[in-house]
Design goal:
167 residues; 2 domains; elongated; PH-domain like; 38% helix; three-stranded antiparallel beta sheet; single chain; alpha+beta
């Protein structure tokens, strides 16, 4: 998902582009709570008639293990939601910050005049593989975005780089 960030605090220099790229999330916090409640009820209701019997104990054990597995996978999904990339294009500097789940933040800086954006339509790894080139390095952008979002991002970056070069 592409988010344009307009809240630029510093009045010295207004950026030509400031975006945050985040993975698409199928559920927000409210939707997650609803799914959590439905699954908890789905595991609990069939056990109620068998409480106190050996079948009830067996059902409780297997339902509890399945529910624990669900919670573990849900937590992993939320950790992946902490992945983001932030792009800032100023007159004399381009900054890309990349943060993955449970990893350190990586920052790449370059000059907009020498930076090139490239969209590879035939890449076997990803459709519409987006890279920035500058300072002798290639960096990948938006690997978690859809191909259409990467094409849209390329257009926005190219426009911002053109404005930065002409300023």
């Amino acid at each position: 998902m592409l988010k344009t960030l307009d809240n630029w605090e510093e009045k010295k220099e207004r950026p030509f582009l400031r975006m945050r790229l985040v993975p698409n999330r199928s559920l927000d916090s409210y939707g997650t709570k609803v799914v959590f409640a439905l699954i908890a009820c789905g595991f609990l209701l069939p056990i109620i008639p068998f409480i106190g019997s050996p079948i009830g104990t067996t059902l409780t054990i297997f339902s509890g293990l399945t529910f624990y597995l669900f919670l573990t996978l849900l937590q992993k999904n939320f950790q992946q939601g902490n992945t983001f990339e932030e792009i800032l294009i100023l007159k004399n500097k381009i900054i890309v910050v990349h943060k993955e789940k449970n990893k350190e933040q990586k920052t790449w800086e370059g000059n907009p005049y020498w930076t090139r954006v490239h969209l590879d339509f035939n890449n076997p790894k990803l459709k519409n593989y987006l890279t920035l080139t500058g300072k002798g390095r290639h960096i990948e952008l938006g690997a978690f975005l859809s191909p259409d979002e990467r094409a849209e991002l390329r257009d926005k970056i190219q426009n911002a780089l053109a404005k930065a070069k002409s300023a």
